[in-house]
Amino acid sequence: MDILLIGGLWLDASAWDDVVPELEALGHRAVPVALPGQGDGSASATLDDQVAAVLAAVDAADGTPLVVGHSAACTLAWLAADARPEKVGAVALVGGFPWDDGKLYADLFEITDGVMPFPGWGPFEGPDSADLSDAARTAFAEAAVPVPEAVARGVVHLVDERRFDVPVVVVCPEFTADQAKQWIDAGDVPELSRAEHVDLVDLDSGHWPMFTRPAELARLLAGAITR
Questions:
Q1: Global pTM?
Q2: pLDDT tens by residue, 105-125
Q3: Which of 24, 81, 104, 179 has an alpha carbon 20 to 30 Å from 96's alpha carbon atom?
């Protein structure tokens, strides 16, 4: 099966370089999605541009792909399910949850000169980054791509309730599956509270398992297909 990989904030498609061969070894075609404004030098990209890139990858996929979103890009994966509920076979959410309709995509940190740069490691101290070495932190910060303001402050639009029939697997790295279940049951994640098929799986890592646990992450994504 085709597995489409969408990186979160500040990541370009190379973030999946260690995961791709692991998925291919398991018999799947892995397709990192290049997001406009995150790696192509365009600070004028919009959230709609990123959604269009994801949908183009969905439309080009063989059969019904697994669409994987990491962190903020969990919303992008969910927007794909909303726009192509008949084409998306399943959605995997890594270290995050989808926003509901009307929310700003990722208005989380300060905007400077039209972009949202990586804010440094202060906001991510603790479980998020505990498994990253000093060298890995430095490499991440140096490679981080500032996110265009029109992406970060783009408005999420969800229109097709058939998205709730698309199976979802939540990969829980810096939080546990039990915690995620509590948040969903409490209504803190409205979109997943309404989804018909949600599985929760634990992964012992920080917020960026594509760097620290690529083989384990690949196995969980492959397992999401069999679910």
A1: 0.96
A2: 999 999 999 999 999 999 999
A3: 24
